[in-house]
Design goal:
Strand order of the largest sheet: 7-6-5-8-9
Number of domains: 2
Radius of gyration: 19 Å
CATH architecture of the largest domain: 3-Layer(aba) Sandwich
Distance between the termini: 12 Å
Largest sheet: 5 strands, parallel
CATH class of the largest domain: Alpha Beta
CATH superfamily of the largest domain: Aspartate/ornithine carbamoyltransferase
Order of helices and strands: HEHEHEHEHEHEEHEHHEHH
Strand content: 5-15%
CATH topology of the largest domain: Rossmann fold
Shape: globular
Helix content: 25-40%
Structural class: alpha/beta
């Protein structure tokens, strides 16, 4: 059986192209499983997984929990808001207390970039990064690639535009690494203030015109404005952002060829996407949610073999 080259999933940057293909191929098998009448397999029956979330999450947390239960793992959920972290307990002490209860794997979301890397150097359990600050969100990038494969047959040779708040997005960085490793071309598009200064050094095209990006791409992956990470104002108002960078169904229908519309969620309807665009035939947003469970099942299963 093929194995991953890593013990932890900390970021796409650490994965090889073979790792990515192995995860996506395994996810395809698990997608068949979750579409059967009986959706569970006993693959991780003897494994205990702790979901340790120091930041709010709906889709990612539910997706991981469902993936774990579909694999028959024992699941422990930890939320920082109701824990001893509020009393001053450190990250390492928190996790070591959880591990003392004989947990085999940690799925962690944290506001600080690098927190999963710090943890992986200090504990024996496998660590899965479910998002670390503005750094990476590897399983989102993997499910996005899986969704593109599902819709268009392959990622190689495709043009993908990532549109929106690139500066504060962990999804953007993971997607850039993942898409490029699979042979796709990537463009980032957004206001000058929301594009990192030296991002072109990653080999991506940069545009500040949303219509130019839509005309160029096969796939538009639209990101929300992350107001909770912004300490200063990067544009005058959400209304003005929507006027210049919001995508409507009319804009999509006027393109000379159909494109695929994606969004990692949650959607700010009426800001980066209008409702008629988000719910249109161009959109595979709900397919991404379904594919997320299969991809996370694949990641957990493969890491458990290490």
């Amino acid at each position: 059986m093929q194995q991953l080259s890593v013990r932890h999933l900390l970021g796409i940057k650490n994965l090889t192209e073979n790792d990515i293909q192995l995860i996506l191929e395994t996810a395809r098998e698990f997608k068949d499983v979750i579409n059967r009448p009986i959706k569970k397999v006993p693959s991780l029956r003897d494994i205990t997984i702790a979901n340790v979330f120091f930041e709010n999450s709906t889709r990612t947390r539910l997706s991981f929990e469902l993936a774990e239960k579909r694999l028959s793992a024992d699941v422990v959920n930890f939320s920082a808001s109701g824990s001893s972290v509020k009393k001053g307990e450190t990250l390492l002490d928190t996790v070591n207390n959880i591990l003392a209860m004989k947990v085999d794997m940690i799925v962690m979301r944290h506001a600080s970039p690098g927190a999963p890397h710090y943890l992986s150097d200090r504990i024996m359990a496998n660590v899965v990064n479910a998002g670390d600050g503005t750094h990476e969100h590897p399983t989102q990038a993997l499910l996005d690639s899986f969704s593109i494969q599902d819709k268009l047959g392959d990622v190689a040779g495709k043009r993908v535009a990532i549109i929106g708040d690139i500066l504060h997005s962990r999804v953007a960085l993971s997607n850039i690494f993942c898409l490029q490793k699979q042979g796709a071309e990537v463009m980032v598009c957004g206001p000058t203030t929301l594009i990192p200064k030296h991002i072109n050094e990653l080999g991506v095209k940069v545009s500040h015109d949303v219509r130019e990006a839509l005309n160029w791409c096969d796939v538009a992956n639209v990101l929300r404005i992350q107001l909770e990470r912004q300490q200063i104002k990067y544009f005058p108002s959400l209304r003005e952002y929507s006027l210049y960078y919001g995508i409507t169904k009319k804009m999509l229908d006027e393109l000379d060829r159909p494109i695929v519309l994606m969004h990692p969620g949650p959607i700010n309807r009426g800001v980066e996407l209008t409702s008629d665009a988000a719910d249109s035939h161009h959109s595979i947003i709900l397919d991404q949610v379904e594919n997320g469970v299969a991809v996370r099942m694949a990641v957990l299963y493969l890491l458990a073999q290490m």
